[in-house]
Input
Amino acid sequence: MGLEDDLYDELYELRESLREERRLSNGRMPPICSDEALREMAMRVPTKADDFSAIVGVGQRFVDLYGEDFLEITRKYAVTAAKGSNIDAEAAQTLRELEKKLVNINKANRLLFQPKLSKKNTFDMMQIPDADIMGLIFGNKRSLKLADTAKGPEAAKAYKQLNEIIREVNREQRDKGQYDLYVAYPFVEGKMPDGDLDIRAPLALFPVILEKDTRIITLKMDDSRDAIYNNTLILGFIKAGGQNRPLPDNILEDYSAESFMTNLIDFYNSNGIRIDYSFAMPSPFVEYKAGEFPRYQPGEMKLAANIVLGKYPTYSSSIQKDFDGMLAGREINGILNDLIVDLNKTDYLSDYPLPLSEDEIEKKGLEASERDLTYINSLNSSQENIIAAMEKGDEIVVQGPPGTGKSQVITGLITSAVMRGKTVLMVSEKKTALDVVYSRLGTLSKYCLQIDDVANKESFYKQLARMLEAGSPRRTGDVDSISDSIDNDVLLLDNIADVMYKPGDFGIEPYRLYAMDRWLDPNDQRQIDEYRVLKERIEPSLLDLKYPEVRELHRKFADQALMRNFNEYRQLVARYPWMTQMKPDLSEYNIGEMKADLLDLDKQLSEWKGKGFVSKLFSKGKISREATAMADRYFSNYNEHTINAVMENPRGFFDALDGYETYSSRSTLYGRLSPAEKNYGEDILSVSDETKMSYVDSNDRIFDWILNEHLQRFDAAHKDIMQEIWDFESIVSDMDRKITEKRELCKEKVEEILQQNLKYITESKRRGDINRIIESKRKWNLNKFINRYGYELFKGVRVWLLTPEVVSEILPLEMGIFDMLIFDEASQMYVEKGVPSIYRSKKVIVAGDHKQLRPSSLGVGRIDYESDEDDPEDDVSAALEEESLLDLARSRYDSILLNFHYRSKYEELIAFSNYAFYGGRLYVSPNVEEPDRPPIEVFKVDGLWEDKSNMAEARKIVYLLKEFFSSRKNNETVGIITFNSSQRDLISDVLDEECASDPSFGKAVNDEMRRFDNGEDVGLFIKNIESVQGDERDVIMFSVGYAKNSEGKLMQRFGWLNNRGGENRLNVAISRAKRKIMIVTSFEPEDLQVDTMKNDGPRILKKYLQYARAVSDGNRDMADSILKSFGDERWAAPDEIGSSKIADRVYNSLTRKGYTVEKNVGIGGYQIDLAVKQNNRYILGIECDSHLYSLPASTRERDYHRQKYLESRGWKIHRVWTPGMWKNPDREISRIIEAIERGSDASRCPPGNVEIPPRASPSHGFRGTGAREVLGPQLSGQARGEGEDRGDTRSGSSRPVGQEPAADQGAGRRRRGSAVQDLERREPVRCAAGARRGIGEGCRMDQTIRRQELRRHRRIHRRLPDDVRRPGSGAPQRVDRLFRSRRYEEGARSGRRRGGLVRPHRRIQQRADFPEPREPHRHVRIRKASAKN
Output
């Protein structure tokens, strides 16, 4: 049983026991609740008393009498579901340490102590004469004019200061979604009870809005947000008093001028803050320098009637409250406990542990199958693995370098969880990150709640109302069946890889056998005879050896010395076979004795032969005994035949012993050979004897023959694999179709589930109350609404997108109320800010990039208040960079790297980041085309460093921006990044001045700043590096800012770059652009003296500026050398093209046909073996199977995602198969040419019919070679009759390619043939087929060759019959057919087609009236300058 059934059983037992306990005196038992109510409790798991009011059949009496009893059980099960446990002492201490980092109760906190006003964040309202601020706050006045530049210098000064506040507030809203502008009134001055901290803090905050035009700034009340009391002040008093109690509700529901002050004093008194109050009129804000603040007694608090307009973040108390709740509850869930254990032992800046490799992902079982995946957008293989990993585990880190699709994978994680009935919480401090995911969800976003500002009630209720208006769910198709079908396609691709590209029975990958040159031509009798010799002579047992053994035999017998020795041994044995029977340990002395014995025996035999018959008869035995004794002494294995041989010719044995020493040494070598080696050597000798080949050639032939035999056996046994290879494109195409279909099905299914879950709200018995609040003009604040109706909301709304502050502000602190938690941009989030969200969840995904910005505690503690210092030192900011949630999670959880880069159109924009920060591990598509101007441009100005800014650069940036608006063609987006805040503000000032002087430009800037695309903010921004993470724009403009000062010195102070990890900010900045980077600088990179710097940041900055200059100057070699300087291990050197025979063959074939082909295109992970280029654009990428299958990639990545990724970047990809090149190279090359035709841009060769007369051939008269041989590959399609014989038609037209449009035929008919006229005009010769082929750099000929062709065409044209020469006769097509038929006849006579270019066409008889030429003409081949015959 599951937890739900267990819970139901326990609730049932509780109900029955309660009924028994409360049996009435008459014996009746109270009903308590129905079984249906128990079932709903088990399903929904209520955790607080208010939740029961949403359950049908449960009333207030049940809550009062039995609620706590039932909640005790449901809460226990909620903890169990979240894998919760009691918190141990170590974890509790860690939480306390993290809690201390939340709020620094110190003078840096503007809500606690504000001795003076910050020009960027606050403004004293008493500076505005006669401003009725009280009427705005408490009266009917809804707006107030604060500054009008037309009213004098003081008003202009106020306008400028208020404008700075507007900028800061708007930046914060764009960055985090929070609009924190308030009127603070009144203030309180005093000292904390413990005497440690002076207090000067606002007591009430009234929400307002500032609006401006070019002249006037107006203040308006913001009715969408609530006025609030200062809970941060109350929290400070609680902490100062050593207490731990919940914070009060700080909303000002109703307030008026008469009751406001009394209610305010009562509120703070009730919360332990006693304020000395006496009525006073508002007064100017007095600024105090250090040591001037009045001295107060501990706990003394005095009201001050100051009115300040300012930026006051207000979220600190909610996160603090969550920590108090977790520590008080004494329980912790598993994923949080895993995260914070041994917190102090973590090196947050380490690059280790590295993300999981492909092998590790496979070993851990995290590789995705289609059944594991739910998606509504396209995914790549790394994104799929992340989704699969979360189905199999509770924790994962997503390493997402710039532009690698974090938002896309988060969308996939969300939809996958919803499909499985889970609830999802996404958390990010960056509003941009929430906006992007919300946008990526498309139509599903209407079922999600995105809240980045709890004060914005209007947005929340509008989303909720739209959600509840959604229609009834519709039924969708079966996702599982199509998933199974896709998995079956993957199995087919797996089978190709397993059978063809992994070692088989022979011990070698079969495709490597196919890569051999095909040395046996069945039509060549000489080769057939050679094959027969080899088959007869080669020992069959050699075919039983594995490839490594055969390769070793081939290598070993390539040694000429070995073969000479082997041959000598075999020759000695053949001549003196008895030597093999001699004892192996005979010394030189023994051989001498044997020679003496042989001479003695020879003498005895000579004497014996001189005797008579009888004497011979009696003395022969003695000689035989002597011969036998000698054999015993020198032979180890002999027989009667050996003895007879010795007796017959002892002198021959004597002479042969001179070679015994040679035999002995060769015999030793031969004896060390294995049986297979002996057979192989014998076969070499045998083949060489028969064919008269050298030993080297025989060795090669035998090796090739053995491999060929295995190849033939494999090929015969695996016809199915070959068919699957031929069907590869169809399999992938079918797979793509199914994936597209599944995307739509998933989207429909997820929408169905989201709609169905809304029933928890729409069918709730409290639905009427919910509707009334949504429709009310005076809406509840979010805390109150969610606390009241959270039971319905958390069941009905499956996807929540919040900031960490909003999580703590509006969500109940309940363990595991969300099934899955996703953090985005976690590198910029403090650990303590993420803890409350993790506590509320069962699974966690932490997404971010540790090579980008970390959180900075600049000036304030970690509640991210801004410092009141107007221009803090940049090096202080860097020094305060601290550990992030991502850093901690990387050390605890497995991580997977997103490695497909999508953002940058040109690889130069991301290449530096890839190699300097990611070790070249990102897959970056090569450029399909080169831009008209470099993708990175550097502009040097004569700037001066004054007041931490550079006016010359600011003016140049504004000039470039103005030029950009006037020249952009595709409505590109733009952003401006500076290296410090002072330069940012200066550029903003200069831009405002230019907008004021040029109203049309001002309107363009204003419109651009407010630009949105599908809910995403894509407007113009001006930001310093610290706040740009997560943004992207088409064009990014940089102002470096740093320059020589008035003394002519370039100060080597790099601020944030000097610290460890400071270079991460540079990585963020240089990776924001999609199409273009423009850098404005005031110095040369070589002016930076960085060799002695301790950390890498300044050195990387110098290299980047050098790289940018190289790209800007078009110096690709210099740019590449800078990338390589980051280390050989980071620069994946491409394999030489010569190492791939197949790539060599394809390259040579295409270049011979006149194509422009480049090798090893690209510097990223996705390098393309060969690329065909036309008009400065690659029209086809060619990838060889041998290269692809050597990569450590999964089947889905190699065979599907790689191609889809490259196609998404504009490439057309064709795969060349080694087996195909072996079986039918002509067909493979033809397939490539057809792919080139499809990829060629028709606009580069406009439609039209240019007929080129055929040329004469010296040996065969007119040859039917057509336009390909006359003008190169550009015109081959027409010559081959593709327009007429193949029935090709142009897109959108039914006329054949070879036929002129009617309008063209009717106007200005050519008298001598269009090709001749084109040549006379010396204009490009174009053809109809060229619109599809368009090969090379265009259909052009150089002038010299054009003149030669013109003369030849004229001679040929004069010989044509009148009906052929006459315009409009249609004869040129007949001529073309004739030429093709003649060439086919010639090809048939020669036994093969010429060059594999011309397909067999039906033969057309030569017309009788077509005259042969009187004399042959010189053969002229037109080729491009880059092609070689």
